[in-house]
Amino acid sequence: MSHSSVYPALLSHRFPADFIWGVATAAPQIEGAAFLEGKSASTWDAFCRIPGKVLNGDTLDIACDHYHRYEEDFDLLVKLGIRHYRLSIAWPRICPDGNQRVNQAGIDFYHRIFDALALRGITPWVTLYHWDLPQCLEEIGGWRNRAVVDAFAHYADAVVRAYAGKVTHWITLNEISCFTRMAYGTGRKAPGLREPEQVVNQTYHHALLAHGHGVRAVREYGGPGAQVGLTDNPSIPVPVSGRKEDIRAAEEAFVDDNIRVLDPIHQKHYSDRYHQITGEDSAMEKENDFALISLPTDYIGLNVYWGYFVQAGSDGRVERLPFPAHYPRTSSPWHVLVPQALHWGPRFVRSLYGADAIYITEHGAGYDEEIAADGRILDLHRRDCLRNYLREMLDTIEAGVPVKGYFLWSFLDNFEWQDGYQRRFGIVHNDFKTQQRTPKLSAEWYAAVIAANCLQ
Ligand code: IFM
Fold it and tell me: Which pTM was predicted?
């Protein structure tokens, strides 16, 4: 008897035949070459130089040195059977002055990247903005200043025009709340400010406009077959039971939590609920802003890491349940493990906003793990996390939600923002001294999932 007839794969563990499997990275986190060939400083290059802002004073200067090592990195993708690669373009490499001057060396670099990917049969999924605002734009107010929207429009036009034909899958912005609320509200991310709530809401509004320009640029210059969408990291309330009251409570909480991004984009205006929540701090908008903000997209990208549990209280109101001590989490303090977030997140996006195609553009787990003496990294905790979440994603697909693909964050250990290089999200270990790449157990496991198109 053959091995597969003795141990047949479970039918319920199979993914649709055309399912997209990939890994994700972002320019500032892996490229390095922070000041080479005309690239100017980003807000993160400036932020990491302020003592105390980034763990161990780590900088993005060298990161994974992917700028010089992309060929070997892409060879590794091929070895692992990974055919889809999400990356971002560094805005300060393309428009170092934040104005219309385009840096040809920056344009050439990504041509080399796309050619190297094409040579290996790997499809790029390109994010226009993954948090690296040119510092010169921050100096005139950054996302607080509506002028940044025009600067982004010029940048997006330059990028899409340059790579039309080489790139067909575009993502406008990554995780708006991380470069608005967390950058200008809580101050955890660059530029690390604590502005009043109205200013924060205004940064969201400017980001929505920039997203609209990204969509417009792809429609105008992307060429035949080009597709575009936003990547969001919605807050995901998970109903604690399948009772319809709990599901309704979770859905209501989902709308409220995501009232500044997903809701306005899809409702084509700020709802009454938005105004109720934000009150006098609502964003100021101009006539016709929503014609741009709500341009139709081809897909929604969701980054899903965590969620929280809710139930309907006795009066029917949403009750958020606190996590008990010792609830499972990764090394990132914010990262409680709630696999069902990968079920309910896409489900709510589908039911509320009617998305026809959803891609999980990021999911992964960060641990402060070290390489063992024998040179192996047996990251069973990461494997378990990935598997539990993927199981939930399969249920979602089986429930008819159009989740079309999954990009694991991240390919390589990299610069994890304020947590520097200590927090490792890669399925490939990187030794930041020698730049040696070593696939972890999770990389081998993910390769097996992709090869079989089935959970292992
Ligand atoms: O590293 C980040 C990434 O840049 C955006 N999404 C979450 C990841 C893990 O924190």
Answer: 0.97
